[in-house]
């Protein structure tokens, strides 16, 4: 029986959350016919597994608290550093984009967490990851002159407060290995 190329198996393994990696790799291996078929099979399976892991690990209440605190962090930064932004076109909507990006990063971070490995620094690392994605996206928005780009000083101040707030929520509602953050 032919086997898929090792490089394809490694790529699919990296894209699959650790909790489901062995099962997904085994399933797509068993259905292997050709490299193109393997890619198309993984193209369908991996997003479904990621979505399933997000549904299993995400807690809507905790994510809503994270989103509200990140939004409040950027709102406070804009209030203190550039009030005109709030009154300008799409001012309040521009501040919602970092919240959305941070929540997406938190959901993916929980989905890709290795089961059984729990670090005391996990809430802080999630905050850094979430706000890191925000900073990266805001840099890309600014470079592309996208209208929803925020000034760098608001990204820096709001991001610092956002990291602290995400870490605080993560410590107040620690994620158990078998339950979503905040459940129970």
The radius of gyration is 19 Å
What structural category arises from helix and sheet content?
A: mainly alpha
Count of individual domains: 2
What is the CA-CA span between the terminal residues?
A: 47 Å
Overall mean pLDDT stands at 90
Shape descriptor? elongated
Helix-strand pattern, N to C? HHHHHHHH
Q: In DSSP terms, counting alpha (H) and pi (I) runs of 4 or more, how many helices? A: 8
Please mark out the parts with pLDDT under 50 across 5 or more consecutive residues, or reply none: 178-184
- Let me know the number of strands: 0
Helix content: over 70%
Strand content: under 5%
3D architecture notes:
It is a single chain. With 184 residues, the chain is mainly alpha-helical. It folds into two domains: 6-55, no CATH class; 59-172, no CATH class. It is built from eight helices and no strands. Helix 4 (60-81) packs antiparallel against helix 6 (91-111) and helix 7 (122-143) runs antiparallel to helix 8 (152-172). It is elongated.
